[in-house]
Amino acid sequence: GDSVTQMEGPVTLSEEAFLTINCTYTATGYPSLFWYVQYPGEGLQLLLKATKADDKGSNKGFEATYRKETTSFHLEKGSVQVSDSAVYFCAPYNNNDMRFGAGTRLTVKP
Amino acid sequence: EAQVTQNPRYLITVTGKKLTVTCSQNMNHEYMSWYRQDPGLGLRQIYYSMNVEVTDKGDVPEGYKVSRKEKRNFPLILESPSPNQTSLYFCASSWKRGGTHEQYFGPGTRLTVT
Question: Any idea which of A85-89, A96-100, B8-12, B42-46 has the lowest mean pLDDT?
Fold first, then answer.
């Protein structure tokens, strides 16, 4: 069946550092791809999405590009802030089924 | 304000004592679902509902029940809770099931079964 593999955390960065969180998936067909973020004590919320190959989703300075050839959807941000500290989930959607990765906890230190 | 609410937010109970976690959304969404979140496992779907009176099992339905009598409400029922159901539970809703539709999540219910 479909699956998603996310970079293991936790990830600790200094403010203004560059962030990459890797996500790869296995799926038949062409899934839509999502990144959700969970801030401390809250539910998940959509961060960005891409629905077809080569699409780039972006929001709040985060970006991810749908790479069909490598079945990847890596999350990047050029300069992280303390307020970006959260857990990030990669989630491909395919065939009426959404799968969530295990989550990557990011801590940004001042 | 568009939101998904869950109650209670925290619950400690004992094995075998029936409990219900309520979920309500005010966005007139058709699709609702329940997830549990466990360390290292991400979110796993318990049950989902495509619309009123239409429910189906997700990946980990054992030990849980749901009902969808009204569009806005989707309670999760644990008839006889066991310690392996200790987890963080999230309710979510969206216009349709998946696709490009964003899911809106509740704040979570942390359940401890002793």
Answer: A96-100
